[in-house]
Amino acid sequence: MDTSKPLVFISHITEEKEIAVAFKVLIESSFLGMLDVFVSSDDDSIHMGQKWLDRISSGLKTCAIEIVLCSPKSILRPWINFEAGAGWVRDIPVIPLCHSGIEPAKLPMPLNLLQAAKANEVSSLKLILPVLAQAIGAKTPNIDFSEFVSKVAEFEIRYTFWDACNSAFAQINSFNGSIISALKSGNAIAIDLTETEINYLLGPMEFLAKNKILNLVRSGGVTVSPRGMTHSCSITPLAELIRVVRDPHFKF
User: Fold this and answer.
1) 171 to each of 6, 181, 184, 215, 248, how far by Cα in Å?
2) Which of 132, 128, 138 is nearest to 104 (CA)?
3) Residues forming a β-bridge with 241
4) What is the secondary structure of 193-215 as a DSSP string?
5) Could you please report the per-residue DSSP string of 145-189?
6) pLDDT number for residue 81
7) What is the residue-level pLDDT of the chain in tens, covering all 252 positions?
8) Is residue 112 a contact partner of residue 104, using CB atoms and an 8 Å limit?
9) Residue 149: its pLDDT value, please?
10) How far apart are alpha carbons 102 and 7 in whole angstroms?
11) C-alpha Rg value of the chain to the nearest Å
């Protein structure tokens, strides 16, 4: 890293590395390499053998601008708030960059006191450019954000829906590996379940029912089996099931 160049520090959680690295590439290419960008999970920022915490500490002490990636998940992590606080104390520009369902107005204190931008909105992203340009005493460049915004949109779909969707189906699959293949026909599945099994399946079913994918209902009476008392139940496909299982993001 060239210490003679102004440094932009991108604060993020590991799960959101993809956006951090994409924004790093956008800044470095748009400003023709006149800015260095530090991303804590990027191999170009922290080389093998370097102490991770030492490099982050050095980056926070020397950066000219800090970008904080804010999502419903990241704002709950103490480390993000610690890094944002480090920039605040140094009185450098700290810009929350919101994505994956959080709005600037919904940021918690003290992040909501800062001028925030939205990662999926070109007009909002353009507000960051003068801050970056000022750090190098240059004119604000004309940047095409369309590719970055598309990457953010694709990430948000996976991050906010598909991760949760595949996790729900993973729980169902671990319970009974034949259920998902049977559901792909679009037909309801009759199944006898104990009260414990029903309670287990209600976890993933809450998300799936909310998104009109699957529903679990008690469809009949109670019988006694070698497994104990069981309830006649039905796992019922809803309107979005076929679209979901045919989507390339679906992992089962």
Assistant:
1) 47, 14, 17, 14, 19
2) 128
3) none
4) EEHHHHHHHHHHHHHHHHTTSEE
5) -HHHHHHHHHHHHIIIIIHHHHHHHHHHHHH-TTHHHHHTTT--E
6) 87
7) 556 789 999 999 999 999 999 999 999 999 988 999 998 764 454 444 456 677 788 888 999 999 999 999 999 998 888 888 989 999 999 999 999 999 999 999 889 999 999 999 999 999 999 999 999 998 999 999 999 999 999 999 999 999 999 999 999 999 999 999 999 988 999 999 999 999 999 999 999 999 999 999 998 888 887 888 999 999 999 999 999 999 999 999
8) yes
9) 96
10) 26
11) 24
Task: Report the distance separating Cα 65 and Cα 242, nearest Å.
Answer: 46
**Whole-prediction pTM:** 0.76
pLDDT (tens digit, 9 = 90+) per residue, 207-235? 999 999 999 999 888 888 788 899 999 99
Burial of 178 (0-12, 13-18, 19+ CB in 10 A): exposed
Residue closest to 83 by CA, chosen among 99, 67, 64: 67
* 140, two tokens: 């604000």
What pLDDT is attached to residue 56? 81
Q: What is the H or E stretch that residue 84 is in?
A: helix 78-90
In whole angstroms, what is the distance from residue 192 CA to residue 31 CA? Answer: 62
Judging by beta carbons within 10 Å of its beta carbon (0-12, 13-18, 19+), is residue 28 exposed, middle or buried? middle
User: Tokens 């890094």 map to which residue?
Assistant: 83
- CA–CA separation, 226 vs 229, rounded Å? 8
Kind of pairing, strands 65-70 and 36-39?
unpaired
